[in-house]
Amino acid sequence: MFLSWVQIGSYRVWSIRVGSSRVRKIKLFDLFLLFFFGTPRSLCSSRYLSELLAEKKAKNAAIKQREAIEAFQRGRRLDAIEAQIKERQRKLAEDQRNLLQQQAQAKAQNLPYEYYLARKRLHMDHEAQRRQISCVFVLLKRILACVPTLSLAPIEAYPAMR
C-alpha cells in the first residue's frame, strides 16, 4: 500500500494504491487526520481496505459471471443458428434427392416411347432405302428394255425386287 498525489480539477487529492490498482482517493483533510491523530474518519484501517478489496473481488466476480452467462447465451444462439443451417441443408438435400428421383422416373417412363420411336425411324429408313432401290431397278428395267442384248436375270435375283 502506498500513497500518491492526484490532480482532480482544481483539487489535489491523495490516492491509495494496493498492488497496481487505485483503491480510493483521499482528501487532504483525511490525510491530516491520518497523520496527526492516527485514526482517520473513514480510511486506512485494515478492515476498511479488506472491505474495499472484497467489494472489488465481488464486482470482478459478478462481471466474470455476467460474461460467462453472456458467452453461454451466445453459444446457445450459435448452436440454434447452426441447427437451423443443418435443417435447411437437410431439406435442400431431400428436395434435390426427390427431384433426381422424379427425373429418373420420368426418364424410365419415357424410355419405351423413345425405343418405339427409334424402331419406327429405323423401319422408315429401311423402307426409304427399299423404295430408292426399287426406283433404281425400275429405271434399270426401262433401260434394259431399250437394249435387247442385256439380260435381267442377275438383277431380278436381288432380294429387294421380290
UniProtKB/TrEMBL annotation:
| InterPro entries reported for this sequence | ATAD3_N
Coiled-coil intervals, chain numbering: 78-110
Mind telling me what this protein is named?
A: BnaCnng27650D protein
Keywords of the record, alphabetical order, are: Coiled coil
Establish whether keyword Coiled coil is in the entry: yes
Q: Which organism is it from?
A: Brassica napus
What Pfam families has UniProt attached to this entry? ATAD3_N
Q: Where is the ATPase family AAA domain?
A: 45-132
Gene, per the UniProt record = BnaCnng27650D
